[in-house]
Amino acid sequence: MGLIEAVAAYLDAEGRIESRVLPREAGFLYATESMRLTTRLMQLASWLLLQRAVNEGEISRENARSEKEKVKFSATPSQRGGPGYEELPQTLRDFIDKGDRLFERVMQLDALEKGDLPAVTPGLANGVADQLSRLKAAFARAE
């Protein structure tokens, strides 16, 4: 929620001023990206609020799943960039990056909640244990 408030404050004040001096193409992209960012953040907030409601026992997991299916996320982070993107104010690009990172984390949580566990390669399931076994093997050879 803090990110949403920070983005809203930026777009309402500093961002509005910064957008006025952008070249035409970058100005159009600014409008597009700021709308995409606010939409995505509201979608993420909706998802997170549903999750909190389940955790606090306010709604059932099944009801939350049905509501979450109604939330369709806007453009993915891979669709960033293009002509004029580098001309966008750094503050907006930083907010976009933060929103994209939050999106990726929520997508991981969503996949885990649905039971879509990431594939684990045998031997790499525990990176620390794998490294320790390599060290033991290396020191065993040295003796």
Structure description:
The chain is mainly alpha-helical. It has helices spanning 2-12, 14-20, 24-55, 61-68, 90-114, 127-142. The radius of gyration is 21 Å and the shape is flat.
Quick overview:
The protein has 143 residues and is an all-alpha fold. It is built from six helices and no strands. Residues 61-72 have a biased composition (Basic and acidic residues).
List the helices and strands and how they pair.
Blueprint: H1 2-12, H2 14-20, H3 24-55, H4 61-68, H5 90-114, H6 127-142
Helix pairs in contact: 1-3, 1-5, 3-4, 3-5
User: How helix-rich are the residues, as a percent range?
Assistant: 55-70%
What characteristic shape results from the CA principal axes? Answer: flat
Q: In sequence order, what are the helices and strands, one letter per element?
A: HHHHHH
Alpha-carbon Rg, integer: 21 Å
